[in-house]
Amino acid sequence: MNQIKIAKPILWSYFQSTCSWRVRIALNLKAIDYEYRAVDLLKNKGGEQFSKEFTNLNPKQEVPILFIDNYLFTQSIPIIEYLDETRRHGARLLPDDPVKRAKCRIIAELINSGIQPYQNANVIKKINAEMGKDKRKDWLHFYLNKGLNAVEEILKETKGRYCVGDEITMADLFLVPQVFAAKRYKIDMSIYPLINTINSELENIDDFLRAHPYSQPDFLRI
Amino acid sequence: MNQIKIAKPILWSYFQSTCSWRVRIALNLKAIDYEYRAVDLLKNKGGEQFSKEFTNLNPKQEVPILFIDNYLFTQSIPIIEYLDETRRHGARLLPDDPVKRAKCRIIAELINSGIQPYQNANVIKKINAEMGKDKRKDWLHFYLNKGLNAVEEILKETKGRYCVGDEITMADLFLVPQVFAAKRYKIDMSIYPLINTINSELENIDDFLRAHPYSQPDFLRI
């Protein structure tokens, strides 16, 4: 498809959203300049994601959304795969070897579909309201530990300096935001030595630091 | 990596698991013969997935697992992407165009991370125990409708005969099992005309029929 490339990509993001954070790291690693549009998921009662305007952009009422090359894309994994397929400069987010690519995607999915759906603001609000605070803690600890345990296990096989070998890959973009979220939910991370070591390697890299929630323009608003 | 190719691939599967079903369709579309190993997720109290032997294969204690080319792979999306990258025969599960590839992946993720985590046996058991039967119904209807609504919306843009254009893609492998699950949970599917039309096109294709839960060797066991 020949589309006229227009000016800057636009990212709809929320500073604390782990899914937005993954895409922010990818955009930084690919050195893609973009316009940041903050969507306040917690503002007022419902959150800005439920507005008519935003729902038109994404009926799932979630961030991130990336507008790039004249298209709107949702869902962090498809966005990151698209960026890697269409931008060959900067870090290669998926290695060439199909087995290593699969391992990167497995780590990403363990977090994306295995943990994140159980810790997002929407589900936690529901669990809190229906089950109460103690059960909310049990819920979070059960799903986060189940997922993190599986990540720690696969890292025994795939790890180098980073999640899969010695180059940064898509897997690393999922690890760092997830570790941050786990700490916020007071998960005992001392039982995950590989996750910790790799996270420490990654979190101070400039492209990761600039994607951190505290570095986002909407951080100061709350 | 040069690995010695050994005999038949092995799929650990449960007949009713939507995630296993997706991979069964992919294997059929690629004409890959495989050994079926049934893992009974509901047997006894805990289910066979919690056995020590199975946990060694997959610490996440989930099906599917595919052993192929001397490697073990988990997670349906990475498995399907791997099959498509390494087997160029049979259906192409992802189109060449990067925008269309992204759209296929978005539809797959809307189901994989957007719906499935809220309807799997493990979470439903928890919701039932903690919130009761009525709330369980509300939970399922909320998350399934939220996800199916987003799928119906994106199909307006991507649809041809199938989910993305006129060729079968990865998106279709996610749609058919999800529609089956939604019907089982008594979701009113009449409000999703595009999903229904495309599902009807797909469900009677031989490679889909042979992957159906009722065609699996473990179906008769319960």
Which key terms come to mind for this protein?
Glutaredoxin, Glutathione S-transferase Yfyf (Class Pi), Chain A, domain 2, alpha+beta, four-stranded mixed beta sheet, homodimer, 2 domains, 222 residues
What does this structure look like?
The structure is a homodimer of 222-residue chains. By secondary structure, chain A is an alpha+beta fold. The first copy, chain A, folds into 2 domains: 10-91 and 211-217, Glutaredoxin, CATH 3.40.30; 98-208, Glutathione S-transferase Yfyf (Class Pi), Chain A, domain 2 (Up-down Bundle). Chain A is built from 10 helices and 4 strands; from the N terminus they run E-H-E-H-E-E-H-H-H-H-H-H-H-H. The first copy, chain A, has helices spanning 18-29, 52-57, 76-86, 98-112, 116-119, 121-131, 133-158, 170-184, 193-203, 206-209, and strands spanning 10-13, 35-38, 65-68, 71-74. Chain A has a 4-stranded mixed sheet, with helices on one face. In chain A, helix 1 (18-29) links the parallel strand 1 and strand 2. In chain A, helix 1 (18-29) packs antiparallel against helix 8 (170-184). The mean pLDDT of chain A is 93. The interface between A and B is large, with 44 and 44 residues. Chains A, B: It catalyses: 4-maleylacetoacetate = 4-fumarylacetoacetate. Chains A, B: Its EC number is 5.2.1.2. Chains A, B: Residues 97-219 form the GST C-terminal domain. Chains A, B: Pfam families: GST_C_3, GST_N_2. Chains A, B: One of its GO terms (molecular function) is glutathione transferase activity.
